[in-house]
Amino acid sequence: MRTGSRMEQSMAQWFKNGRWRRPVSWLLGVALLAVVAFYAVPALLVDRRAPVRLVVYAFSTQEAAFDQGIFPAFEQAWATQTGQLVTIEGVFGASGTLAGQINLGAPADVAVFSNAEHVDWLKLGKRVRRDTQPAIIGCTPMVVVVRPGNPFQIAKYPDLAQPGLKLLHADPRSSGAGEWGVLAEYGSAYLPSQDEAAGRSQLEDIWGNVRLLADSAREAMSLFELGAGDALVTYEQDAVAAQQRGIGLDIVNAPRTIIAQHAAVIVDDNVTRVERSVAEGFVSFLLSSAGQQVFSRFHMRPPTCQGDAFPALVEPFAVKDLGGWSQAYADLVDGLWKQQIESNLNLAPAPQVPRTGEP
User: Fold this and answer.
1) Bridge partner residues of 316 (DSSP)
2) Domain 48-137+263-297 part of CATH 3.40.190.10
3) What is the distance between the alpha carbons of residues 32 and 37, in angstroms, rounded to a whole number?
4) Is 136 in contact with 262 (CB distance < 8 Å)?
5) Percent of the chain at pLDDT above 90?
6) What is the C-alpha separation between 88 and 79, in angstroms, rounded?
7) I need a labelling partner for 28 at 20 to 30 A (CA). Which of 2, 11, 98, 101 fits?
């Protein structure tokens, strides 16, 4: 009886002191870790090994560079580096249009825009985090494309205002090339003297000759190839590519022109945890020497816009010289062009352009 009594007293004291909690807590902890490991470890292994499909939205002039160069090169590099298979689906169109589609729910994991302003649109749409800084993956100066022999003797932007010239232009409402064109045409007159009236006057005079608008830079080039217009303001990259395809045209490098800087960003609202590492790897690849070599083959300059393989730039300027994209877009595109120029355009009916898979 004494023995039983002592045992009962010891057990009572053990419970009273709370010593029982230690082994029970330890056993519960071990059980919890086992459950987490049972479910989490296989999931992590599956994430690392399972094929990933990445959706990339990119502005129209990058279609050949991405489909024929960047996508296959990255897929191979990623598989070699990680052992994971990646399949990339590309969607191409006018930069501003793509930004609008993504804000409306289009499933882009990575977006490549013709300018950083369209990244800001995704921030306003809460598709990209507010503190995200886009990667500038390359640049190309704006040039003037003319008919062989340059019959209007165009040498610089003021020459686009001469009487009788029919100018073809990408639409600033949808196209990044259209926006860059507005900045080039205004800035080339404004910057030498900081004279806003000179910039506004030149922009109005040039747009007095615009007869056709195209949704994107690629569609504008297609219209030019079909015989529309005497001149076209577009990217050097697309002009050189068209020339090498055998299209009859000359390229005029205006001495004072803007350099168009292109931006890539991960769409945070769409990319999953599994896809994020691949998306980050893809953007890093665009900036790598391997990625830049691919871009160079397709006539896009590096982010510095200088390189031995490209013509020297005489008096280039950048969007920062016009106050940065937020100010330039508000003042020149959304303000001056949309409010004062667009309503006075004298446009001709546009011919039909064969579709090339763009949205």
Assistant:
1) 257
2) yes
3) 9
4) yes
5) 81
6) 13
7) 11
Tokens of residue 257, six digits: 């022109």
Residue 21 burial (10 A CB sphere; 0-12, 13-18, 19+): exposed
Give 160's DSSP letter: G
For the 138-262+299-344 domain, the top CATH level (class) is alpha beta
Q: Are 94 and 216 in contact (CB under 8 A)?
A: yes
Q: What is the pLDDT of residues 94-107, one digit of tens each?
A: 999 999 999 999 99
Decide: 152 and 167 in contact? Cβ < 8 Å: no
DSSP-derived secondary structure letter, 195: -
Phi first, then psi, for residue 3 (nearest 5°) are -60, -45
Candidate from 28-32, 165-169, 292-296, 319-323 with smallest mean pLDDT? 28-32
Fold matches, 48-137+263-297 and 138-262+299-344: yes
Q: Of 350, 334, 345, which Cα lies nearest the Cα of 209? A: 345
∠ CA 282-179-261, rounded to 5° = 35
Q: Of 351, 348, 330, whose CA–CA distance to 339 is shortest?
A: 330
Q: What tokens were used for 67?
A: 């489909």
Measured CA distances, 110 to 90, 136, 206 (Å): 10, 14, 36
3-state secondary structure of 351: coil
3-state SS, one letter per residue, for 16-44: HHCCCHHHHHHHHHHHHHHHHHHHHHHHH
Q: Are 210 and 347 contacting, i.e. CB atoms less than 8 angstroms apart?
A: yes
C-alpha to C-alpha distances, 32 to 38, 45, 339, nearest whole angstrom: 10, 20, 64
Q: What is the pLDDT of residue 354?
A: 56
**Separation CA 288–CA 271 (nearest Å):** 22
d(Cα 123, Cα 137) in Å, to the nearest integer?
19
- The amino acid at 47: D
DSSP 331: I
User: At a CB cut-off of 8 Å and minimum separation 6, what does 293 contact?
Assistant: none
Q: What's this model's pTM, rounded to 2 decimal places?
A: 0.84
Asked if 112 and 56 count as a contact pair (C-beta separation under 8 A), the reply is yes
